[in-house]
Each structure stands twice: as structure tokens, then as C-alpha cells.
Amino acid sequence: MYVKTVLIIKSVGFQQLDRVVQKINQNIELPQKVFILTHEHGKDIASKYFGAQQVLIYTYKRNFNCLFLPPLLKQMTFDEIILPVTNLSGKGFTNVFLFSLRIRSIYRRILNINLDESPITKKHIFGLFFSQILYSVISVVLTAIFGVLLFIVWLLL
User: What is the pTM (predicted TM-score) of this model?
Assistant: First the structure.
């Protein structure tokens, strides 16, 4: 019998994660094995949800980063990766989305604060990444322009 493998990347607090787990358990169509990826400090709490054998530890002390993939995840493949976010749009979680691209998976979906599901593709993730860069560049340029203008006005007064 086929067992679906699901990875939840814990990018939200445990209160929301509790709601995510309940939602996943409601929508079971196949037998599934659920893994959670968390930082070291969340290991004990995460073990209460899934059992110790299903908790994967992000071994680095920093935020999830696509440049730093734990060796264990390089060998694993999942049917689905679930990316919980704490807002409606998923803005601000680009690092987690990019990190998820390094993990082999057939399907990715976002679960927002209201537990609304939406699929996320590689194209969508790269679009979010490039729009974030574009907004940063625009804000730096506009800040520089207005800074120079204000400095000129200050000199003239």
C-alpha cells in the first residue's frame, strides 16, 4: 500500500502549527506519514505532535536558507511540502519558499493564517523573489533621490 509522505516546514508558531496539523488530519485521502522540519529549539514540542521519528531538525542556527540544506533532506523525497504562513498572501516568507525548492517534492502548497490552501509553483516562488528584489531596489533609489532633494532644500534654507 502506498503511503503519502508530507513535509511541513515549521515557519510559524506552534499555535498555528496545531491548526495546520488538524487541517491535514481532516483531509486524509491516503495513508500518510507526516514529517515536520523545525529548528533545534522546537524539537521537543514538535515531537509531541508527530513522534520523535518524524521530526527533522534544521541543523543551522539561522533562518531557513536555500544555501544551507541539512544532509538528511538531500536524500529524501516527499509527495507534498506544506508551507504555513502567518498572513493571507505569504509575503515575507520568500526565504522559506526558496528553501523548499531545494527539497525534492512533487507538490507544494501554502496554508495561510485562515487555513486557506493554495498551490505554489516554482514560477510563483521566483516571481515573489524577483518582485521582492524589485521593490527593494525601487525603495533604495527613491530614498536616495528624496534624500538628495531634502539635502539641497536644507542647504538653500
Answer: 0.80
Give me the residue label for grid cell 533609489: 141
CA distance 63 to 66: 10
Q: Chain-centre distance of CA 88, in angstroms?
A: 13
Identity (one letter) of the amino acid at 15? Q
Q: 33's torsion region: left (phi>0), alpha (psi -120 to 50) or beta?
A: beta
CA gap 112, 109 in Å, rounded: 10
Domains and CATH numbers, the chain: 4-120 (3.40.50.2000)
How do residues 27-55 score in pLDDT, each as one tens digit? Answer: 666 667 888 888 888 877 777 766 545 88
What pLDDT sits at residue 30?
61
Angle at 4 between CA 39 and CA 44, to 5 degrees: 25
